[in-house]
């Protein structure tokens, strides 16, 4: 199955793994210790991230180290960025509406 960056970031556990590995490379066991899900579940998430080229797993001795490949997240960033202005406009509009309701509520008191 061919996977892409959007499948990688679709799951909240995988997003948390990406966030964790963005700080530093970790062994598979060190990653698994940070989550309250089974080790096989974490291994499956890591496999998906590796298939999407978001992480690389390198073997050093008996340990397997996970390393983030941030350049592979660029397509998702670009896609999300194009909607940022829209979201900001919607939030600004919502904030203006709340302010107007608050003003009206305060006048009615």
Widest sheet: strand order? 1-3-2
Low-confidence runs of at least 5 consecutive residues: none
In the CATH hierarchy, the architecture of the largest domain is: Orthogonal Bundle
* Total count of domains: 2
Which CATH class of the largest domain?
Mainly Alpha
What is the makeup of the main sheet?
Answer: 3 strands, antiparallel
Shape: elongated
CATH topology grouping of the largest domain: Arc Repressor Mutant, subunit A
Structural account:
With 109 residues, this protein is of the alpha+beta class. It folds into two domains: 5-69, Arc Repressor Mutant, subunit A (Orthogonal Bundle); 73-108. It has five helices and three strands; from the N terminus they run H-H-E-H-H-E-E-H. It has helices at residues 5-9, 12-23, 28-33, 39-51, 74-108; strands spanning 26-27, 55-60, 63-68. It has a three-stranded antiparallel β-sheet. The longest helix has 35 residues, at 74-108. The radius of gyration is 20 Å and the shape is elongated. The protein starts with a helix and ends with a helix. The model has no long low-confidence stretch (mean pLDDT 89).
Structural topology:
Elements: H1 5-9, H2 12-23, E1 26-27, H3 28-33, H4 39-51, E2 55-60, E3 63-68, H5 74-108
Antiparallel strand pairs: 1-3, 2-3
Provide the descriptors you would attach to this structure in a database record.
alpha+beta, 3 strands, 13% strand, Arc Repressor Mutant, subunit A, 109 residues, three-stranded antiparallel beta sheet
